[in-house]
Write a structure and sequence with these properties.
Layout: H1 2-24, E1 29-38, E2 45-54, E3 57-63, E4 74-85, E5 87-92, H2 102-106, H3 110-126, E6 129-134, H4 141-150, E7 158-161, H5 193-205, E8 210-214, H6 233-245, E9 249-254, H7 257-266, E10 270-273, H8 279-288, E11 291-293, H9 297-305, H10 310-333, H11 353-360, H12 366-372, H13 375-381, E12 398-401, E13 417-420, E14 423-427
Parallel strand pairs: 1-4, 5-6, 6-7, 8-9, 9-10, 10-11
Antiparallel strand pairs: 1-2, 2-3, 4-12, 12-13, 13-14
Helix pairs in contact: 3-4, 5-6, 6-7, 7-8
Bound molecules: zinc ion.
Residues 91, 93, 135-136, 342 line the site of zinc ion.
Length: 429
């Protein structure tokens, strides 16, 4: 009790002057003069608009003719450019790099991963992705990266982070490269109801914003089968119950059809990859409103440029042979889709190539594709009030490109201007 009182006293001593200072500081206005503003909900383009930014927030969007600059305003001229909300990638691994040499995997350290994270967070932001959901990192390096970005120490997107991935012993989310005498185990390995409950609570204790689990085997792991289910339905139900009660969403890595169905029935919020999704899984996901997060561009990149050990390579070929057709079927059936890339499996910063696959390979309408990277992704993250559209009260997360992306989504592979939270990180106009 004494401790509680002293904390309250400290809070009142320090918090009040800070609040008072914030209220009296003059509000710096930034006027973003946009040639065209794209509404990603309707696809409508409004010409000659000015986005008024105060602090990290959009205050208003009005015709430029009606907003004159006042003394002290900062004016950014994006005349001739198409402006839209910053993009969102709900499946990244910013602390990892595309290197699948088993020895280098085994000799990674938290320090190396933190350095990777600093570099990759900047690269991702400059590619126009102002928000990411990072779904898997060891040692809670992702938590520290998120906090360093939020504190302004290093540039990067807004992040939600999962910490270590929950998975079964010997599964996709374990470490299977060494024999038993080395006793190597993934940080998030937990078997059985009590153990998975403990692991969910532990991840939340150390800073996770969401819980990531491995429902089936995967491609880039040794000795497991992407089509085989790993967690049982009961284990996943226990994970989801704890996570949701504690205010965290659950993302499930799932390739095989049974794992997709079980994870969906257990109540996870998103299915990641979904390569072998079938009609039963599609029906269950539609009924529950579960998001599908396909990660398709990585297959193109990997088949062209990847160098995988043989025990990964065959699985990559097998999954790539079926995934696009199955995802296309799910998309046409009306499953909700949010954009995710698995960036780290290929170089960070190429995230927008995923949109090209959606539009030009599986036939998604360009506006629907843009929505996967904006409104849908924000909805999945529970951040609709913060980002995903350009609207008063939301974060000033603004990007600009040279043409209307609805005419050619590939223009988003070359973003010219990036503002995140009212701060300009790139202006190559
Ligand atoms: Zn992943």
């Amino acid at each position: 009790m004494t401790r509680r009182i002293s904390v309250a006293v400290l809070l009142s001593l320090f918090a009040l002057p800070l609040i008072a200072a914030a209220q009296t500081a003059p509000a710096q206005r930034t006027l973003v003069r946009a040639g065209h503003v794209l509404d990603v909900k309707t696809g409508k383009l409004a010409d000659a608009q000015t986005i008024v930014v105060i602090g990290d927030t959009i205050q208003s969007i009005q015709p430029t003719a009606s907003v004159s600059a006042q003394p002290g305003d900062k004016v950014i001229d994006l005349g001739g450019m198409t402006v839209m909300p910053g993009m969102i990638d709900v499946h990244t691994h910013l602390t990892m790099n595309p290197d699948f040499d088993p020895y280098r995997e085994l000799t990674s350290t938290s320090a190396k991963e933190a350095i990777n994270g600093v570099v990759n967070a900047r690269t991702t932001l400059l590619a126009g992705f102002t928000t990411v959901r990072n779904v898997g990192a060891s040692g809670f390096v992702d938590v520290d990266l998120r906090d360093a970005i939020n504190a302004g120490q290093v540039p990067g997107p807004h992040m939600q982070v999962s910490g270590p991935l929950l998975g079964i012993t010997g599964g996709h989310c374990d470490e299977n490269l060494l024999p038993i005498q080395y006793h190597l185990q993934g940080d998030g390995v937990a078997d059985g109801i009590a153990a998975v409950q403990h692991k969910v609570r532990e991840n939340i204790k150390y800073g996770a914003d969401l819980i990531k689990i491995c429902a089936t085997g995967g491609v880039l792991s040794k000795g497991d089968d992407p089509q085989a289910s790993q967690y049982t339905l009961e284990e996943m139900q226990a994970i989801v119950a704890d996570a949701h009660r504690l205010g965290r969403k659950v993302a499930a890595h799932a390739h095989g059809a049974q794992g997709i169905l079980w994870a969906t029935e257990a109540g996870v919020d998103s299915i990641e990859h979904g390569s072998y999704i079938n009609d039963e899984g599609i029906a269950a996901m539609k009924k529950r409103g579960t998001y599908l997060v396909p990660t398709l561009y990585l297959e193109d990149w990997m088949l062209q440029s990847g160098h995988l050990p043989p025990f990964y390579e065959q699985k990559m070929k097998d999954v790539s042979a079926v995934a696009k057709a199955n995802i296309k079927h799910a998309m046409q059936a009306g499953v909700k889709i949010a954009l995710g890339t698995d960036a780290a499996v290929y170089p960070h910063g190429l995230n927008a190539h995923e949109l090209d696959v959606y539009v030009n390979q599986i036939g998604m309408a360009p506006l629907a594709a843009l929505q996967t990277a904006t409104v849908n992704a924000a909805d999945l993250m529970g951040w609709t009030a913060k980002t995903g559209t350009l609207e008063p009260g939301k974060w000033a997360d603004i990007i600009a490109v040279e043409k209307n992306p609805l005419e050619d989504v590939r223009v988003l592979e070359d973003v010219k201007f990036v503002m995140k939270g009212g701060v300009v990180y790139k202006n190559e106009r």
